[in-house]
Design a protein that fits this description.
286 residues; alpha/beta; Trna Endonuclease, Chain: A, domain 1; five-stranded mixed sheet; 6 helices; 5 strands; 76% helix; rod-shaped
Length: 286
């Protein structure tokens, strides 16, 4: 026990005094260093230790670089995982939306199938209607053929009637001419007298308009264009209208129109009424 206490005190004393003795006492310093040399490594061992420490340091540097690279790779992997997670979420969302779209598509297909069924029924009804229409058209064609046949027959009858009327007119004209009833000068004088009686004032004057002779009456500022003929025809109305247009362009006055004749057909009378042209009829003396 006493030996141990003495040893501890000696160690404490050496810790306090050794640094000072090594600095101040050269003989003591040489003694200590000589004693410690046998426990220290040689130069070669020390160089080997240094080389080993440098190698270990290089290896540690490599390890630090690898660790930094691993950390970078880990961060990149984490970022990749995050991005992949986002992609997975987007894919899941897209799958959900596609599921909804597929549901809508299925409903649409069901509606289209129903529409196809209804259109099939409509097409069948349309085909039936086309068949019925074809039958109706055939019946109509048959009726048209019968009507055409009746029209041809009626046309022939009308042509025969026109021929009879023409022959009758020729016979009447021949009879009138034979008895001197339709002498042109007598007829014209009679028509002029009828016109003057119709007008109550003024006299009929003959003048050339549009290359043809026409009768004109000017009364109280009113211009009246006359067509005097034994028998009024539809072409006489057309000629009178054309003459009136030229007259208006030439004199700047729109004339009143009238036709004086001894004979007129109902067809011509209707046309005169439609065109607003007045009719003057005259009795021809025997």
């Amino acid at each position: 026990m006493w030996v141990m206490m003495e040893g501890e005190k000696l160690i404490e004393w050496m810790k306090r005094k050794l640094p000072e003795l090594l600095r101040t006492d050269e003989e003591f310093r040489a003694l200590v260093l000589g004693t410690l040399v046998q426990y220290l490594p040689t130069r070669e061992e020390f160089l080997a230790i240094l080389e080993r420490l440098e190698r270990i340091e290089r290896e540690l540097e490599e390890l630090r670089k690898e660790q930094a690279a691993l950390r970078q790779d880990f961060k990149a992997m984490q970022q990749t995982l995050v991005e992949q997670g986002q992609v997975i979420l987007a894919v899941q969302q897209a799958i959900v939306e596609q599921g909804k779209a597929i549901g809508e598509l299925q409903r649409t297909v069901a509606g289209l199938q129903q529409t196809v069924v209804e259109q099939g029924r409509a097409i069948a009804e349309l085909q039936q209607a086309v068949l019925e229409l074809g039958q109706a058209i055939r019946v109509l064609f048959e009726r048209v053929e019968r009507l055409e046949a009746a029209h041809d027959k009626l046309t022939g009858e009308v042509r025969g009637l026109r021929a009879d009327v023409t022959r009758l007119e020729r016979r009447v004209d021949s009879g009138f001419a034979r008895f001197g009833i339709l002498a042109e000068d007598v007829l014209r004088r009679s028509l002029q007298v009828a016109v003057e009686s119709w007008l109550k004032a003024g006299r009929v004057q003959t003048m050339e308009v549009a290359g043809r002779q026409v009768d004109v009456v000017i009364r109280d500022g009113e211009h009246i264009l006359l067509e005097v003929t034994a028998r009024a025809h539809l072409q006489d109305i057309d000629k009178l209208k054309l003459t009136a247009q030229v007259y208006e362009q030439q004199f700047g006055i729109k004339p009143r129109l009238a036709i004086a004749c001894a004979y007129v057909t109902p067809v011509v009378v209707r046309r005169l009424i439609e065109e607003g042209i007045e009719l003057i009829s005259a009795e021809v003396p025997e």
